[in-house]
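Hi C.,

You asked whether I'd gotten around to modeling the 661-residue construct. I have! Everything is below, sequence then structure, no commentary in between.
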Amino acid sequence: MLTNIIFLTPIAFWGLLTIAVPIIIHLFNLRSVKRVDFSHIAFLRKVKEESSAKRKPVELLILCSRVLGLTLLVLAFAQPFLINSDSARDEDKKVVIYLDNSLSGQVEGENGSSIFNDAINKAVAIVEAYPENTTFHFVENAFNNSPVINYTQEGVKDILTELDVVSVDRGLSEIVHRIKGAGIFGEIYLISDFQNKGDLNVISLDTLNSYQIMPLKSVNVNNVFVDSVYLENSYFSGNLSNVLHVRLKRNFKDELNINLKLYSGESLVSTGALSFTDELLKNYAFELSSDMMGLDQLRIDLDDPFVGYDNSFYISLNELDKIRIVEIASASATSYISAIYEKNDLFSFQKMPSQFIDNQLLLEADFVVLNEVEVFSNQLVNALKSFVSNGGSLLVIPGVRNISRLSELGLLVAQDTHEEMELKQPNYANPLFDDVFETNQENIQMPRATTSFRLSNIENSILSFPNGRDFLSKASVEGKVYFLASSLQKNVTNFGVHALFVPIMYKIALGSSAKLSNIYHYTDDGQFSFPRSSDASNGVFELSGNDSQLTPEQRIVNDELIMEVPKGIINAGHYTLSQGEIALGNLAFNVSKKESDLKGLSEDVFTELAKQDHIEWIKEQQLRSFQNALASSITGKPLWTYALLLALFFLFVEVILIRYL
């Protein structure tokens, strides 16, 4: 092991010139003198000679004491430090401190305060272990400060004083990428509960940096939180009743009773209670009545005795923008289509004859039903092709004649056997039948139909015949095109009056439009979407809520507004989307559920990491010894105190020699 001694103030060695003073004094005392002889003093001469013989070594001791005292005093002012060169840190390397200030920092730590306060204390201990002239870099979850900014010791302490928890969590990949992206390499301190830091390979593989891992440990990791929320009938809104399903999750097994409250704005509209035994998941259902107001600002609160920051869950149920449906029908077509869509609050329905096509109305539609049209003009074919290519949904109910032109829409249709039979039981796994049946009944009464036509290019079968032919299917073409194997005439099928007809037509129509907005988002999603209302212009969209207003990056894609907001900008709560003075709807934001699972990484993980030369695991009980070792490896072991004590010792020896010898 190599050791070096350095002097912080070597200019003090000029003080060694003072050593000449006691030497000159000593030599002055030894200068020759003129002898004068007196009579009758023989006895005194003998005494004097004996005293001089004893005095010479004492004076030499006094001189040595003075010289050593002055030398050591000068040495003390030069401030010597003992440096272990094998463990000394490279002063050219940067010092980076990452402090995890996510919401999970609010839980209680082992010291009685929150683990966030423990993290602050650890950061201060690190900073104080370095010399005052050290340059630091600082990173926290909100990314409010750039890592390239140089901070002094006091500057970092000022940041720590003002720092607070934020509703943003970052993976290790994000943190390391931000540090390395700033061109910073050196000593990186990671102070975190490592709650969602499973991407540890990013530091294992980064041997260009030295990592000091400082885990934060909480006393209690028990928590209950809302895992997800969904509507029983996802396509029902407005004046229709519905059921709101809430799924609760916890990370421990014990008997527990939880109370739930449903708010609309600030008004309590419903309460509920559920009991956990040994389950980790539990469901509860709130009934949403048809006359319930304020569905766009719902909030679920739960009484969780453990952690408080995730006990509210925000939901926005915006009313649907009416789905625009156009029926293009022949004179002989049935009226079943107009009967289910025309007088319904969810739909804006228009019917036009096949001879007179309004191209503009067709292109603005979400769903087009081609009902038993037998004469296809070039205008109609071109308009339908443009409609489908622009994202619209098309249902083709064939007529008796002239099906050949359907190939121009990508449909490969041929005549079939014209057998009449009852349809097979539906495939309940098909998403189209979600929320249609209360239970998956195996023997429901199915409609009858005639195998009039057969579609060859089928992507998805919805209803089929027992012989394997498809009655209702989605075609394998670009876009959403559905095909019915027969007309809806009474002598061909009774599907138009069957109980399945209405829900299937509803689901196809509602699935044709992107007008369903998400009932909630997470604050760290970064990108959000909202259906662009037909009433909206091309102006700028803004979000306002939680006493803040922001203009996100935005673009329109297929009649949908896509917004991008960096992490840390959006907080949990309701935000109103507006364009100018027009409010278009509300968006609900919630804290990421990753922050609700409080279980961190096991100690075995840190033990394995610490086996690598560039990673060090600093335990709670080792913090003080680490701080001392760090200070010693940076500034060395101070020796000036020993020099000062020895200087005082030799000055004391001088006094004793002069006084008693």
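If it helps when you're writing up: The chain has a mean pLDDT of 82.

Thanks,
B.
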